[in-house]
Amino acid sequence: MTERPNYLLSVLDQSPIRTGATPADAIRETFELAELCDRLGYHRYWLAEHHNTLGLAGTAPEILIGQIAARTRRIRVGSGGVMLSHYSALKVAENFRMLETLFPGRIDLGIGRAPGSDHLTAMALAHGPGAMPLEQFPSRIRDVLGFLNETLPDEHPFARVRAMPAGSTVPEVWLLGTSSESASFAAYFGLPFSFAHFITADGGPEAMEIYRANFRPSEWLKEPLGSIGVFCLAADTPEEAERLTSSRDLWILQLYKGERGTYPTPEQAQAYRFTDRERAFVRASRNRTTSGTPDQVRKRLIALGETFGVSEFVIVTICHDFAARKRSYELIAEAFALQMATPRP
User: Fold this and answer.
1) Cα separation, 83 vs 6, whole angstroms
2) 5, 21, 81, 225: which could join 176 in a potential S-S bond, CB 3.0 to 4.6 Å?
3) Helix, strand or coil for residue 258?
């Protein structure tokens, strides 16, 4: 099957913890999946940031990025994203300048505004005199860009501070979000924007249109550039895809109810007695789930791309069976005819 070459497939990995597995297992699976996706021809591999959850092990993308970049050959590696509200702009810039120095031309800094945690955990992360209100998020973006590019204005209080190690290249900075507000920030700063469709199916095309309509060219990006984060699960048969996806139905419901457990098995999902209200919730959440055979997933992604006006899909795939998770990425890569890497000599 031949696919138009302008489609890009990328990965967002939340390092999910399967029922019966450990957080260490989840991190090892992240490494193995990244190596596979590098060979398959995926464009980016982004690591998510979540805190105080029993189901997701990825708390520190800035650490995982270096480990994965060292294990891979050509795939770009980055954050999807760093939750900037928790950290100083200088420290984020230093972390990613270091990563760019180690792996020049391969590092992405995806920035998010959400806390990636519950309110109490967000308070613990921001504890101390350096904590800043969310209203100052735009100024933090400005400062991160200033530190990365050594472009802080002379009147800035930290204008004489340099984010080291300095170098001739900088990470590719993206803004991530689920709202028109995040899209507006990306447009204002002239940055690429990725809409997290897997979090919400509402308002995405409108946010992307706001981004394009208000985009201001910058020194790092002359024209708007967008992508969408999409939950996808491909299997060899529709029945197997449905069975594997049932775990996500229960997982999303548990999150909605505040039950922060590990990722359930299909057997647990099929044995669960859903109330009528819960079934309605699951049906609604399926609007942000793309599952089926490879051809079905491919057609759905292309349709979403046309709706959003984008040609890059950042794919989130979680299922209880890690072999099936890897198989899903393989099937989608085949459906889009990605160019596999040649084996190492």
Assistant:
1) 30
2) 81
3) coil
| Dist. CA 176–CA 195, nearest whole Å | 6
For the domain made up of 8-237+290-335, the CATH class stated in words is alpha beta
Residue 285: closest CA among 240, 250, 332: 250
β-bridge mates for residue 226, sequence order? 193
The reply to whether omega before 116 is within 30° of 0 (cis) is no
User: 133: cis peptide before it, omega within 30°?
Assistant: no
Secondary structure class of 233 (helix, strand, coil): strand
Beta-carbon contacts of 45 under 8 Å, excluding residues fewer than 6 positions away, are 10, 11, 13, 34, 37, 38, 68, 72, 75, 76, 77, 78
Q: Which amino acid, residue 129?
A: P
pLDDT per residue as tens digits for the range 72-85: 999 999 999 898 88
Domain ranges of the chain: 8-237+290-335
User: What is the rounded radius of gyration, in angstroms, for the C-alpha atoms of the chain?
Assistant: 20
* 4 confidence band (pLDDT: 50, 70, 90): very low
Predicted TM-score (pTM) of the model is: 0.93
